[in-house]
């Protein structure tokens, strides 16, 4: 894929680059995803092109151009070649927004890249050129070679823009089309979570409002009923780092935990091994699992072992939710890496 600087039809100056040569004359219609405009004028380079969605991914050309983000998604029809008829008008608009020096620097960078391709001194994409020594003479104008040159560039948080695109994609993919009420309608991840919280509220009400699990818990604390959770708790020689709570809502979990702690404190004659234990550990590792299993068995009509298996499986998390969670983790890591590479950022000092 070759670099082709271009300009969109919007007022700002855009300098998208690596698009395919076949896309130059193509004028696809609208659609293909939401747009996230960084500001009134921003030079940019195209990193990828989706013919099916009729969109392009673009990165803003700036002093610290980094190819790692996937870029901003824009409609292909909003892009024009850099040498279009409206170039003069678009350049003037961009100059009024970011200053003549900034626009001149971007155009000089593109011209220097084209000159290198024409002479055969450089072969590669625009991003490869920017990262190579071939662009050093132009980049020094920003990084200290010309201290009297004041350039302004738009500030864009690519991770936040990608999060917004994820939300729009989910809304477009998961809303059922009109007239298809008979088909299964997929729910957005946040709606699935809300549906699970609503269902779990019945378990919370059974435990807290109706005290449905109190007798079962007292029998366990007093030693009248066996409990694998209590046995594992008494035999454990270290604090568990992760406890399966089944409940995902923090308010629901806090309500249940507070009630279970009260049940333990009001239980008469508990087992001797429980007299000196950590109450927080006892609630989370013994009483909470037993209360949840008891409520699941009562509300879903299961026996104890069937309810225990349901509890151990945990809440039904959809694969899309897992994928979105993984993407958020990667974006957070990318944010930290970008912040660490930012000019003037000092490395984290040693912990006290």
């Amino acid at each position: 894929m070759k670099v082709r600087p271009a300009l969109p039809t919007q007022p700002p100056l855009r300098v998208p680059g690596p698009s395919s040569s076949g896309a130059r004359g193509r004028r696809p219609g609208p659609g293909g995803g939401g747009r996230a405009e960084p500001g009134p004028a921003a030079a940019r380079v195209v990193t990828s092109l989706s013919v099916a969605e009729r969109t392009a991914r673009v990165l803003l050309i700036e002093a610290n151009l980094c190819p790692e983000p996937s870029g901003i998604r824009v409609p292909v029809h909003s892009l024009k070649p850099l040498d279009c008829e409206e170039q003069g008008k678009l350049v003037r608009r961009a100059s009024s927004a970011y200053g003549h020096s900034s626009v001149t620097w971007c155009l000089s960078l593109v011209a220097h890249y084209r000159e290198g391709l024409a002479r055969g001194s450089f072969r590669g994409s625009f991003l490869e050129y920017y990262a190579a020594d071939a662009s050093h003479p132009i980049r020094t104008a920003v990084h200290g070679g010309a201290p009297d040159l004041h350039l302004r560039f738009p500030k864009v948080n690519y991770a936040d823009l990608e999060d917004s695109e994820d939300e729009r994609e989910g809304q477009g993919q998961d809303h059922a089309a009109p007239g298809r009420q008979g088909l299964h309608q997929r729910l957005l991840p946040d709606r699935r979570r809300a549906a699970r919280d609503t269902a779990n509220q019945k378990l919370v009400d059974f435990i807290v409002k109706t005290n449905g699990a109190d007798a079962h818990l007292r029998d366990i604390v007093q030693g009248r009923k066996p409990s694998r959770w209590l046995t594992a708790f008494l035999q454990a020689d270290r604090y568990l780092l992760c406890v399966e709570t089944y409940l995902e809502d923090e308010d629901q979990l806090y309500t249940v935990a507070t009630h279970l702690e009260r049940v333990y404190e009001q239980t008469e004659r508990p087992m001797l091994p429980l007299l000196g234990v950590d109450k927080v550990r006892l609630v989370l590792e013994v009483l909470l699992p037993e209360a949840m299993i008891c409520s699941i068995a009562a509300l879903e009509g299961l026996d104890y072992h069937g309810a225990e298996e349901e509890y151990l499986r945990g809440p039904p998390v959809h694969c899309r939710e897992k994928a979105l969670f993984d993407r958020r983790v990667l974006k957070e890591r990318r944010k930290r890496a970008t912040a660490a590479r930012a000019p003037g950022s000092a490395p984290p000092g040693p912990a006290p």
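The beta strands are 6-8, 44-50, 55-60, 72-75, 79-81. The mean pLDDT is 72.
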